Amino acid sequence: MAAFVIDASATLPWCFSDEATTATNALLVRLQTGDEAVVPAHWITEVGNALLMGVRRKRITAQDAYQFLADLEFLPIRTSATTRRMVRGAVFPIAEQYGLTVYDAAYLELAIREGLPLATLDDDLSKAAKSAGAFLVWPQP
Question: 81 falls in which pLDDT band (50, 70, 90)?
């Protein structure tokens, strides 16, 4: 079983088909066939907020959003705790050093700490990961 860190930007295309790519679909297949994703604790809140924005913008229905959240519960996605001490000692410094939000820095910190590749569609996070020596699931264009 292989594992990887996934951020919200690489998760949401599973719900918003106009954002889906071969690469994001492949991540879902990996999870459905035995691999595991690891996420920081705020991931589900970030995903939920994006779904709510999708409902408000009439991109999806509320029923679709609820179903997507339910479907996520059945995927092998492990939530890693991020303690206050970790935010102060590792996440905040990464955010500061690479010009990231603290939310995005939490994904990078997790990938570094667990020695796992990071799946993201976020250009800034991808660039920061490369600069930090972290591995990416796939190279960004």
Answer: confident
